[in-house]
Amino acid sequence: MITVDKDQFHHITRVLKASDGDTIEIIVPGERMIEAKIVKIGKRDLQIDPIRTVDLPAPPRPAIHLFQALPKQDKMTEIIRAAVECGVSRIIPCETTRSVPRLTDVKPAKINRWHATAQSAALQSQQFRLPTVTAPAALHMIDAFPGTIILPWEDAPTTHTIRDLFTQLTAKHQGQAPEEISIIIGPEGGFDAKEVQLLQDKGAHIVSLGDTVLRVEHAALYTIAQIKAEYNA
Known about the structure:
Blueprint lengths: L5 H10 L7 E6 L3 E10 L4 E10 L7 E7 L5 H11 L4 E6 L12 H17 L7 E2 L3 E2 L9 E5 L9 H11 L7 E6 L7 H9 L3 E3 L8 H17 L1
Helix pairs in contact: 1-3, 2-3, 2-6
């Protein structure tokens, strides 16, 4: 018996507008995907005839972990949706010195909504793997960040670009670009200087996103797009 959750059911019936007799792909636990034919669509479930089971393709590279400072209002939902559509592997909401929302403001219902947003965005963008949205954490309590750490900062010299960083890293590693990257994005008020120093002490590379200051909900998207462009180049 194969079941789909309500998000997959909505995607199949409302977004793809699948009908009886159509062939669909369903992601199931264990890094597998099932190709199946729809026998009948009910009000809340599907009757399907499995055709074959295939292993999922390799995860996209680079694997990107987004450490996003908690923004005001419900901007995190927009950030999660855009980041997932761009192919991030994991999103870690963070409390920083200048974050207006605090960890105590993030209730379980909001975290559940973030999970639902991530899953919906992954299905919409036809991704085979669902990204992880973790519980929020205090930035200063995070001991390690996976892979190469990139920290966009409004006070960084404009000459410290992501392109220059990739040039340096690929030269250092015999032409190989980073396979895993952590991006740390600040809140509306930016990072405190002590936070920047703390992150640099943990190995963060300070970069500039240009001579203008981006809105918090656009900074992650811009950074991810630049990283993917440089990686693919």
